[in-house]
Amino acid sequence: MDDSTLDHDALMQRVDTMMSRGETAPRLARDPVNLPQINTWLEAIGDPNPVYRETTTATRLHGGPVAPPAMAQVWTMFGLDPHRPAHDPLHGTMQLLDEAGFTSVLGTNCDQTYARHLHPGERVSITTRLESVVGPKRTGVGEGYFVTTRSTWRVGDEEVATMMFRVLKFKPAPRVDRTRITRPQRNADTDFFWEGTAAGELRIQSCGSCDALRHPPGPMCPRCHASNRGYVVAEGTGVLHSFTVHHAPQLPGRKLPVTIGLVDLPEGVRMVGELMAAPDHQWRIGDPVAVAFECIDDDLTLPVWELDVPRPGLAPAEQDADDDTETLPAWELPVTTTLVVAGALATRDFQDVHHDRDLAIARGSKDIFMNILTTTGLVHRYVGEWVGDPAARVTSCALRLGAPAYPGDTMTFTGTVVDRDHAQVVVDVVGSVPVGDHVTARVTVALAGEEVA
Ligand code: ZN
Question: Are residues 275 and 153 part of one domain?
Fold first, then answer.
């Protein structure tokens, strides 16, 4: 069943060896910070900030054109060169986990800090250490290990930027085997429900006589005993009333554990359904949930429940008049093949899943998808355009990654100011795609008046 040769103990032993090496020796960027790469990046990301451009008076604010902070990592990317230095902690850990059978990778977190702007001509170096390997964990995409590395960029001995980077390295596991899964019994009483899920609607049976709602559906109203019936379409939200994590016995066609929840709907009925969440989410009674639809095949679509993360700023018009939360205008960005590929190349990220559709599909993805550095650049651009002051400077950006962004998606950015004083503003950003949040981020911007390098 498992063709890997490396068990957990052997794996962790080799991880310990890697961690004991500590920080790598500094590795110099291939090129100094340079205007051609900056301009290519600006074209791909579309960042209009004049301080990154050579021909504007604004560049004088920072002592000449400077590199966008989001490019910190770009300078030391490996590019197309397949060679990796011996003992590279991230690459080495990925190889180990490949050997142990955990062959797929998913970025989950990327937290960066920027001490100052970088200027063309400066040549950065990077050091990296392996901070932790935690696992095996059962996650929504399969069993895997969370790998965390920390990197520091320097110019000479001066620290100019840092990054905490976390990936999930996992064994992809289909959650549902559609040939073996137990199918619900359908009859004249329940057909409307399953026709609804197939159409993306959560339907609740209603009494044709007294309008009472009921679930599960049945032939007769428990209140007035009438047998004429219809349905209403539920709002699709709810609150977790209770849940259980099912570890045994085996369920046909299901990979265990499965978390089953009892959800209170605002319409007044209660439904049972599977709970789906981010790999490390711990469910709590009272969690807000929203329905999603999992298409098993043409005959069966199951309603499942996901954590309903509040989306600050998505509906500012509905906020109370006395709510003084400061929100950013929403930005809708069409994700195109050109944006994904141009972003990948401008950030010197040559992972095939970001530019080669055939290979992306062969690896089990539905298409190429946006790389993390492009996402970072877009988040900076969104906040920077809103701040609108060339003298301001992004000092940190903590990203949490979720659903992939594919060509054809529209990414909607929203933002909320969570802290502000004379020196800085802190903004929480959500970039969502149709299936969920692609990125949530907290960006800190030092405002004008701050000492700029
Ligand atoms: Zn009734």
Answer: no
Say which residues have a Cβ less than 8 Å from residue 147's Cβ, sequence separation at least 6: 90, 93, 94, 97, 130, 132, 133, 166, 167, 168, 169
Confirm whether 106 is domain-assigned. yes
**Which pair of tokens denotes residue 188?**
């004249």
Q: Which bin fits 225, alpha (ψ -120 to 50), beta or left (φ > 0)?
A: left
What is the distance in A from the centroid of ligand 1 to the CA of 443?
53
Tens of pLDDT, residues 150-181: 999 999 999 999 999 999 998 876 667 777 88
Pairing of strands 393-401, 436-446: antiparallel
Q: Is residue 437 part of a domain?
A: yes
Tens digit of pLDDT for each residue in 178-224?
778 888 888 989 999 999 998 889 999 999 999 999 999 999 999 99
**How far does residue 165's CA lie from ligand 1's centre (Å)?**
57
438 in the same domain as 368 = yes
How many structural domains does the chain have?
3
**One-letter amino acid identity for 186?**
R
Q: Which domain holds residue 387?
A: 8-175+326-446
Q: State whether 86 and 189 are in the same domain.
A: no
Residues 357 and 209 in one domain: no
- Supply 433's token pair: 């795609």
> How far does residue 228's CA lie from ligand 1's centre (Å)?
8
211 Cα: distance to centroid of ligand 1 (angstroms):
6
Half-sphere exposure of 270 (CA within 13 A, CB side): 6
